[in-house]
Amino acid sequence: MGSTTQAMASLFDHYAGVGFDEMFSAPGVPRPHYAAMFERLARLSPEELERRHKVADLSMRHQGITFTVYGRDQGVERIIPFDPIPRLVSADEWQLIERGLKQRVRALNLFIHDIYHDRLILKDRVVPADLVVGASGYRREVVGLQVPKDIYVHVSGIDLIRDVDGSYLVLEDNCRTPSGVSYVLKNRQVMKQVFPSMFVRHNVRPIDDYTSDLLAVLRHIAPAGCEDPTIAVLTPGSYNSAYYEHSFLARKMGVELVEGRDLTLDRGQIFMRTTRGLQRVDVIYRRVDDDFLDPLCFRRDSSLGVAGLMGAFRAGNVGLANGVGTGVADDKGIYPFVPEIIRYYLNEDPILRNVETFRPLIPSHKSHILNNLESLVVKAVDSSGGYGMLIGPASTAAEREEFARKIEENPRGYIGQPTISLSQHPTFIDDRIEGRHVDLRPFVLYGDEIKVLPGGLTRVALPKGSLVVNSSQGGGTKDTWVLQGEAPEALRGEEHV
Amino acid sequence: MLSRVAENLYWMSRYVERAESVARLLDAAFYLELDAAGLARDDDGRGPVEGILSILNCRTSFEALHPVADRDAVLRYLTFDRKNSQSIHSMIGRARENARGTQEAISAEVWSEINRLYLYLGGAKAQRRFSSSPSGFFASIRKACVLWSGLVDGTLARDEVFHFLQAGRYLERADQVGRILRAKSHHLHDPEPGPGVSLRPVHWSSLLRSCSAYDAYLRTYRERVDPEGVVRYLVLDADFPRAMRFCVARCRESLHEISGGDDDGYGSEAERLLGRLDGELRYIDVSEIFDRGLPRFLAGVQETCLRVGEEFHKAYFST
Lengths: 497, 319
Fold this sequence. Notes:
The structure holds two protein chains of two kinds.
Chain A: H1 2-11, E1 24-26, E2 29-30, H2 35-43, H3 46-62, E3 66-69, E4 76-79, E5 82-89, H4 91-115, H5 120-123, H6 129-133, E6 155-162, E7 168-174, H7 181-194, H8 210-220, E8 231-234, H9 243-253, E9 256-258, E10 263-266, E11 269-274, E12 277-280, E13 283-286, H10 309-314, E14 319-321, H11 338-346, E15 353-354, H12 363-371, E16 376-380, E17 389-391, H13 397-409, E18 414-418, E19 424-429, E20 432-441, E21 443-446, E22 450-452, E23 457-461, E24 475-482
Parallel strand pairs in A: 5-24, 7-15, 8-9, 8-13, 13-14
Antiparallel strand pairs in A: 1-2, 3-4, 6-7, 6-21, 10-11, 11-12, 16-17, 16-18, 19-20, 20-23, 21-22, 23-24
Helix pairs in contact in A: 1-2, 3-7, 4-11
Chain B: H1 3-40, H2 48-55, H3 59-65, H4 71-79, H5 88-100, H6 108-121, H7 124-132, H8 134-155, H9 160-187, H10 201-210, H11 214-221, H12 227-236, H13 244-259, H14 269-283, H15 286-292, H16 294-317
Helix pairs in contact in B: 1-2, 1-5, 1-8, 1-9, 1-10, 5-6, 6-8, 7-8, 9-13, 9-16, 13-14, 14-16
């Protein structure tokens, strides 16, 4: 036991609690569902943790689990840093998250259907009409268009954070083409290979069903009368930053991965060019943005899509996931209305709260934002990936001035939110464990029913004190374990790693 | 299968096969230089390693960069230089790009191995290994390529994916054997056609080594290495996996699987051309090859390989 205590002392030596900590309820006191993990970690020496961490990195690199970084070093492939200490979610917490996500996605889907059809929510003035039609994700081309089974948001990733009191808040909705699920599945695989001992005594819910569930969702939206649909994943190509994921999903579903140039339109149907001539495609899981989907309908200079695809979609000859025009629900100008949207369509109170949000369109909100730029976070409504935002406490006077000017010029284009500190989680940094901020992106599938993948992408901001978890900005990931049943028992001294 | 994917697969295995061939050529040449350096010079005073530049058609581009050739520069140019499209690193880089674009068609093992080899070639470990022992380094490249082929054999179903890979692999291999034989037989300026000419056995042994055929040859013929025997073995043997006839037969089988034609006929022009070549290699006698002139015969075979590639492209990649 002596060496155990020593190791525990050294690994957690410099651990400092800031805000809400996922593992500890008080310094040195783990929460019940983390107790076994805490002891398990304490038995690993820093060298052992470091060695296995390297094995995990190498394994990811060899498997080509990389993303492409744009900008400075063009086309450089990187692996997303992987932190070996898993994030645990207790069964009770997960139950709440799952119910909340199902509720939210169901309401958002109804909202999207409504705004492209009857527009009741606009007529009832629950959401301002000009906000909706002014959203950059709004597509007037799909007004009145019938989509299979009235489903728009087949795949979504809803970003959650935790407040200082530990309650889960929704930070943003991703209803277009959220990525990251391949990392969720791969992280688990690598954890099992490299740290099998950590799983001992933890009843971790499996996540392997995701791709077969996704396939079921895609089959669900096949054109009427199509018994055995041919399904394809549409990627912008191997230079896209999420190419690995596109390829991974196609492989795990056993369907073709196509690029726009592989597809062609013939008499209203979509076909792919194969070695045996043209073959009809019935459902497309597209990972190409709306704008690039069809040069006849959207951006004419796009070579990533298929000319005539929207025509085939309109005629019901091909199923598309996600639907076109779902980006309106991702707009941060719409975000503050989501609680009202839930109440309006479902007649229920929202289970997951939003982050308090100020809208410069409202004069009192605008002055509040402008007077408190130093403490608020300001975001462009159509931005994602951690770009186009001002984090007040970390900003310079020049940056604040710039944002103040932008807000005056374009009040529709921005929102302000209090700076949420984000929960922190023990993370392996340079041979010891320190607290780093995390968020959580669970994935939701909408087909025959709504299913939430029991897990998700835990993103961790690796620089000390940083609140930006995006992989493009130095974020890493962790495996996320949703636990089943009671909290795992703590280990006894005699067991070995 | 998607035409784009089929084309990627076909070229992927051609590139790997070519990289393996370059590694083998360099290794055999390096070995020869150490073993019998004085004897190995050709008329221009070039050693065997430098001679590889001619086989791979990149002497001009090399000389533009390196006015004074030395062995190390040649080895590095053909191994690591990404500006040289024929270098091992370039070839594996392209194979890896193709694999990256077709990951969903191949197995995770096949992708991971080519990716690993690519990352290895760009890393410091490969440089260290090369510096300490070129021979050991080339052996590691060859091993990785053979492992890759083994993973193709061992992890892929015998469907179109596999056969496009096979077709590329064996067409490239037949072409490489022809290229090496041509260069070396020309290099030895075979004066009189026909058996009995005095060719230096060490070169023929080296030629066999360039095709990983030395031991197999000795096991089969159990006699001294002579030109007739070598040509019979490398061109006409039915069982040795680097013999032209073997390669042509395997390529033809895969083409047949792809076209799905019946047993008697042929499904594409590429298949017809290969079938004819297969017949010729099956029934020609080695003395007839020497009567016709070895270089001329080999040029004819290579011409056919080239046309097969073109026809293949027309039939499957340009839907």
